[in-house]
């Protein structure tokens, strides 16, 4: 959980920097922060110490206290920052505190519809003030029955908070709305898993540490880029078996070819089979390693069982080229690792190589490298580097064979392009150009945030809601 900078929000959404500073503080105050555990675990303290030794510094003034409850802000112009937030995991490793809702769901005016999906928006002809959405079509996921929900004729509004589904719902009406920006400027983070390291056995790790509540950010400047790229690092830790299952979905990226993954994403039952095959493979790898460590310990006069704690990280950053939704709405073309005007230049590859190479020493200090047998098998499947001279091969291979991500999709209905920023009339904030009553209040309304997008999504929804309600007591 981390806020994008107020400068970035002001540039891409509108309003002043001070407005976003105040809105963040107001939203943060509505979190039930007192319910979130804030104590630093041993592994959290370890990651912070290693990163600080490598030249990183905290983005707040309270790096050395356990009483951090505020959501951190990304600060512009700082190359190596640590952002600390209260963990969202309970003692069982379950993410129980990741969401926030400001809606009173028990208000009698609120009607909840669950186990259903919006499949179509119905628009009338242009009435002079824009094309009006008159109905929303739903599909009951249990019965397969379709339902048409009509809107109030004069003042009914549709506020879309559907993320990647928002442009998909609007694309069929692009011509009627005369809004050619729908479905454009789409992006997702390039996420690259990094090496697995063995933690010092004296560092205690619990299920709560599966996702360590520390983000690290660096800034990298490609030669052909006009502005620097922010690269973020997420850290994960846990006992061997638990951690492997937690990050097993990442290994679908490596163990399957891209052509198969594209089919798998569209076929739920095929995805279920692939996921479980990977999990079974990990289970067998766990069994082999358990036997190896057992015999290794016995040969050294120790007990058979040896708890093996691991730490790992991923690096993520924004690609240089935007993507777009295709005309059939089911496919998205993403601009990952796109070649520049010079066929030898590729900004994404340059950023990945430089960033991983620069921070490989930091990762190596988190724990001990595994033995050569494990490293050889691990690199056979993934090419993930443990040495700096292996980075270029990993990036080149990853860019061709392993990349497929739609986890942090953003864009498709940008402010000032597809929707109204509300600068002239706050009540029009988020209003779809060409429409009389459709508003967008999700991540499709902004370019891809440079940091984890969760808080940006909350903030956009909060911003649009406040503007819509500004004149309504």
What does this structure look like?
The protein is of the alpha+beta class and 473 residues long. Helix content is 33%, strand content 19%. The chain is built from 13 helices and 16 strands. It has helices at 6-13, 17-29, 42-53, 165-170, 174-177, 240-246, 248-255, 258-266, 268-299, 347-366, 372-382, 391-402, 454-468, and strands spanning 57-58, 81-84, 116-126, 131-140, 146-150, 158-160, 184-187, 190-193, 197-198, 211-220, 229-239, 309-317, 321-325, 332-335, 410-412, 438-440. The strands form five sheets. Strands 1, 2, 8, 9, 10, 11 and 12 form a seven-stranded mixed β-sheet that branches. The protein has a three-stranded antiparallel β-sheet with strand order 3-4-5, with no helix packed on it. It has a two-stranded parallel sheet with strand order 6-16. Helix 6 runs antiparallel to helix 9, helix 7 packs across helix 9 (268-299) and helix 8 (258-266) crosses helix 9 (268-299). The longest helix has 32 residues, at 268-299. The chain is globular, with a radius of gyration of 24 Å. The mean pLDDT is 83.
Quote the beta fraction: 15-25%
Helix content: 25-40%
Number of DSSP strand runs: 16
Structural class: alpha+beta
**Low-pLDDT ranges:** none
Globally, the shape reads globular
The total of helices stands at 13
Average pLDDT works out at 83
Oligomer: single chain
Q: Biggest sheet: strands, sense, closure?
A: 7 strands, mixed
Order of helices and strands: HHHEEEEEEHHEEEEEHHHHEEEHHHEEH
Radius of gyration, CA atoms, in whole angstroms: 24 Å
Distance between the termini: 31 Å
